[in-house]
Design goal:
20% of the residues lie in helices and 30% in strands. It is α+β, with helices and mostly antiparallel strands.
Amino acid sequence: MKNIKRVAVALMLCILLAPNLMVAHAAYNPYPNTQTINDVTTIPCTYFAWTAAYNDMGVELPAFGDAKNWYYAAKNAGYHVGPDVRENSIAVWDGASYGHVAYVTSYYEDVDNNEKYMVISHGGISYEGKPYGGNGVKTGDIRRAEVGSKTGRGDTLLGYIYLNEPRSELLANADKVRPLYASCNHNLTDWSVIVDGVCNEEGYKQRYCTKCHGYERELIEGTNHKFKKYTEFAYDGEEVILNICEVCETIVVGSVEEHEHQFTEWERKRYPTIDQDGYLVRHCTYPDCNVDEVQTEEALGIYPTLYLIPIECFVCALFMGANIFFEMKSKRNNN
């Protein structure tokens, strides 16, 4: 009997907690996570390089097609590309089939021979007819870093896609994006954020047409500064208030100026029940403003219809009904 009650309680808790257990949507990798070539199944180099760029640098690349297309597709999309090896960049090789891409973790120079080498991590690697390491991913691999150098299978190094460009250069490259063709019946990918809007500075996002290979760009509004208040003392002992932005480190001396509140959407904190008011809250997002607004919803009293019963009350009713049921059944069994 106790076990049955515990099951009932667990089910009710699941109903209550289910909305809070939802996982936030992760970034979308446009490449498949497996490929089979010559009967060998591996994690593709494109999937691995895209994931490494996102995990290490927070860069959500658009779909560039086969690996050999990445260099010029990235250039057309406004990313900075070039011939010099850098840490946290993507190396791109051309080839007769699909080409190859790899994530560059570091590099070094052989001074005696005047050569550069890069240390890479990449997918799509097979060895003796089997996926390398069981999944085709190899880390700590060393390759020649000069443009034009070739791999063992004959792919030619085209150059590098740079992922850690300064904000100013990324914004400058935005004007170099190839636009959509007006006559094309576009097949557009999802939006990718190239530069976030921060601290009153606009950013931009873009999406790619897989038919005309052009890009559509859209501005992202800049956000307000995120000030944190500090109290300092001048040489004469006078108290000075400093407001320092946690994002761009802009400093404002003194109190932040008067402003019109910029409220978030209402967020429900409690539903109204039979005898208890519910309420919603919204917050002002203006820097250094701590104003909250509360909106109260009166207790519902006697419900005119079942559809108005909040979920909390419905769950409570189920608990009470189940408890009465088990008690009555227990009494009958005892008699």
